[in-house]
Amino acid sequence: MVNPYNDSELGKKQQVAEMFNSIAPKYDFLNHWLSFGIDKLWRKKAVKLLKPFKPKDILDVATGTGDFALEAMKLNPNHIIGMDISEGMMNIAAAKIEKLHLNDTISFEVGDSEDMRFETSSIDAITVGFGVRNFEHLEKGLSEFHRVLKSGGVACVLEFSKPRVFPIKQLYNFYSYYILPLWGRLISKDTRAYTYLPESVSAFPDGEDFIKVMKKVGFNSVKEYRLTFGIATIYFATK
User: Fold this and answer.
1) pTM listed for this prediction
2) I want to staple 118 with a disulfide (CB 3.0 to 4.6 A). Which of 15, 148, 211, 237 is the partner?
3) What is the pLDDT of residue 29?
């Protein structure tokens, strides 16, 4: 298991919360700048895949600063709940929602993806952007997704993946292990956050390996959509 802080005695969940609380003020700037804004296009693609299902009650897990929840407003839902273990990130998300006067539709709460408070078969769609690789117990978290979704409900997981084609693979690895951590440290002042990112991507079971885990917990249909030469992937699963 890859943890944000190797010298910490805290569990992975607590370390992840601590890390995101630390970088929260600079997160949006770094996220969009270091990805050249492509992350916004990835979320748009994910929401387009959700559109035919017309979900009304949406749960955005690992909501962070709320970008996926805001993009999901294009689906005209009744309610979006953004859940995260980092209060620092959600404070920034809440400020965005307040500014856009969307408090009646989007709400935020601290929550653990592996032990969610929601009733079984109560949610139309679950979204999660760049969050599942931070789960302490991946299978347990995905089992919770399956439990809370209604029959016919969908889970839309957007996550980083590993490019496999030359020279994209080599360029991506160089950028991830040398350029990204350098700028991340300089701007966020957290010496580990942007080193942990490529390490966690490398350790994550992407592609067919991730699909196998989703099917193992009960999803009977899982499709993958590889994006931007395989730098990211959308996993789209139905219950």
Assistant:
1) 0.95
2) 148
3) 87
